[in-house]
From TrEMBL:
Gene Ontology biological-process annotations: carboxylic acid biosynthetic process
Protein location: Plastid
GO CC terms: plastid
Pfam families the UniProt entry points to: Aminotran_4 (PF01063), Sulfotransfer_5 (PF19798)
UniProt superkingdom: Eukaryota
Protein name: Branched-chain-amino-acid aminotransferase-like protein 1
GO molecular function terms listed in the Swiss-Prot or TrEMBL record: catalytic activity
Stated family: Belongs to the class-IV pyridoxal-phosphate-dependent aminotransferase family.
UniProt cross-references to PANTHER family, sorted A to Z: AMINO-ACID AMINOTRANSFERASE, AMINODEOXYCHORISMATE LYASE
Length: 545
């Protein structure tokens, strides 16, 4: 006989699931066989305590040996367990034998009705025990399937199909319904807990509207919700999660506020200004062989942007650098890495526009990712011209490197719709400003030109490339440039930290030059490559040998 162990917290549809498995023609069920052992060891008070202790085996290891793994008449034995009943002193056989799975439910749904018979507490809720069970089973090489009660109620057939598949047993359609009323295999405690389930005949859809949440349990919710979310991240989902472009980025640490957090825990408050109004400034940084290129230049611009937006309680330069270094070192990221550095105005005490509500200080975010240049710098990219015009300094000065990027995003959508790599944005007078993501240069008859930084961000990479142009003794000009001049250019490239120096071979369907990467572009790409090798701020602890 194979034993199926179901581990859950109270009020998680565990009894409904037991009834579901009891409908199978190959399965017998046990309702919390370790309950008496739990009551005896912990001394927990229950209105039915004496009846349980008198009628059930209290020796936990005898329960495991003689009842859970004892002889039976059917192919499977389904054991419904509460996670808190797995106590020290039980034989290791309980975890090593059988098929285990974990049933979870959001504590915000459990807690409103939890203390009808038992006072609410972190220990009684048992989510900590569920996490421990998941860890122990994973250590044994048996990471258990996790199902969520919400999925069970929303789509019981698909959820049960998936669970049966994970357990290696065939699904039976009889699992979807049962007769109303008490069952002969119900535990002694059924009159106290099972009144509503005895009225049911199937997994019922979730409530349209929740019960009011008791504020007296708010702290308990705060304690337990992260554990639920951790287990939820391992649950089987009907729809697969999107694939992360670079799998190595699935497990990374990001800096938020004043601490490092795992990817899925790296979040800001809904009261943060970046959520409330895109009220933040940012920089993109690149790491090359243990050094951060142009770090001081990027920090200069970050502080200038924060000052222009009148941020207060801004972290110091050394504090920001320290957070960057700690984040990179903790991730072991020393090369081929892009960092999204964000400084928000911070969390508000209440939602609203006024910065007078920002009383917590700024929020610093350091998000590193393994990320090579995002464009094809060998063959080049294609651009189209967007109808969306670049912001004028009359409205929102692009010299402030702010997070309110809708102007750029609208242009990028036009580029995506045209199957282009990016989109050129014009200023209010019809001259080229930049692309939705980068600065832009052209070459005509040996002269290198780029638009004035009046309607665009004066990029750090742009400035570095201008220096390289001058070092290469090329003729350079910064002026207003019309779109037709880009259409008829000999060479075009874009610059940005995310993509470095990227050739453009086609604009609005017109080939640029020969349609291949031009000689001056190649020359400057080589010069830029040398710059990344020879300069940058070293990351502490990085060793080249």
């Amino acid at each position: 006989m194979d034993v199926i162990h179901s581990w859950s917290a109270p009020r998680s549809l565990s009894t409904s699931l037991m009834y579901s498995f009891a409908q199978r023609d190959d399965t017998e069920v046990l309702d919390e066989p370790l309950y008496a052992y739990f009551l005896k060891v912990t001394g927990a008070k229950r209105p039915y305590r004496d009846a349980v202790l008198s009628n059930m085996e209290c020796d936990g290891n005898k329960v495991v040996k003689d009842i859970i793994f004892g002889p039976g008449e059917k192919k499977f034995r389904y054991c419904k367990h509460m996670a808190k009943q797995h106590l020290p002193g039980l034989t290791d056989e309980l975890m090593k034998r059988g098929k285990h799975f974990i049933l979870i439910r959001n504590p915000i749904e459990i807690l409103p009705s939890f203390d009808e018979h038992v006072p609410s507490s972190f220990l009684e809720l048992g989510l900590g025990d569920l996490v421990s069970l998941y860890s122990e089973l994973s250590r044994l090489g048996k990471p258990p399937p996790v199902i969520d009660a919400a999925d069970l109620r929303t789509d019981p057939e698909a959820t049960l199909h998936g669970l049966c598949e994970d357990l290696g047993i065939p699904f039976q359609s009889t699992m979807l319904k049962w007769e109303a009323g008490a069952k002969p295999y119900d535990g002694i405690w059924a009159p106290w807990w099972y009144e509503s389930i005895h009225k049911s005949t199937c997994f019922t859809p979730p409530r349209k509207y929740p019960l009011p949440f008791p504020l007296s349990l708010y702290e308990l919710l705060e304690q337990s919700l992260p554990l639920y979310n951790m287990l939820r991240s391992h649950s089987r989902r009907t729809l697969p999660l999107p694939k992360i472009p670079i799998p190595a980025n699935e497990k990374l640490l990001a800096w938020v506020g004043d601490e490092l957090l795992p990817r899925e825990s790296a979040k800001v408050s809904v009261f943060d200004s970046v959520v409330q109004g895109g009220d933040a400034v940012w920089e993109g940084l690149r790491v090359y062989t243990g050094k951060i290129l142009k770090l001081e230049d990027h920090l200069d611009r970050l502080f200038d942007s924060a000052k222009a937006l009148a941020f207060s309680s801004v972290p110091t330069r050394e504090e920001i650098k320290d957070a960057i270094f700690k984040t990179l070192i903790s991730n072991g990221m020393f090369d081929n890495v892009h960092i999204r550095l964000t400084l928000t105005r911070g969390k508000k005490v209440s939602s609203g526009m006024t910065p007078a509500l920002n009383l917590y200080g700024c929020t610093l975010i350091v998000l590193p990712e393994w990320k090579p240049p995002v464009y094809d710098n060998a063959k080049g990219i294609m651009l189209v011209t967007a109808t969306t015009r670049r912001n004028s300094p009359n409205n929102l000065d692009s010299k402030i490197h702010h997070n309110n990027l809708l102007n750029n995003i609208l242009a990028k959508i036009e580029g995506n719709n045209a199957k282009a790599d990016d989109a050129i944005m014009l200023d209010k007078d019809g001259y080229v400003a930049e692309t939705n993501a980068t600065n832009i240069f052209l070459v005509k008859k040996g002269r290198v030109m780029t638009p004035h930084a009046d309607f665009c961000l004066p990029g750090v990479t742009r400035a570095a490339v201008i220096e390289l142009v001058l070092k290469e003794n090329l003729v350079f000009e910064e002026r207003r440039i019309s779109l037709s001049e880009f259409h008829t250019a000999d060479e075009v490239w874009t610059t940005g930290t995310m993509g470095e120096l990227t050739p453009v071979t086609k604009i609005d369907g017109r080939l640029i030059g020969s349609g291949h990467v031009g000689p001056i572009t190649l020359r400057l790409q080589d010069a830029y490559r040398k710059l990344t090798e020879e300069s940058g701020v070293p990351i502490p602890t990085y060793q080249t040998t």
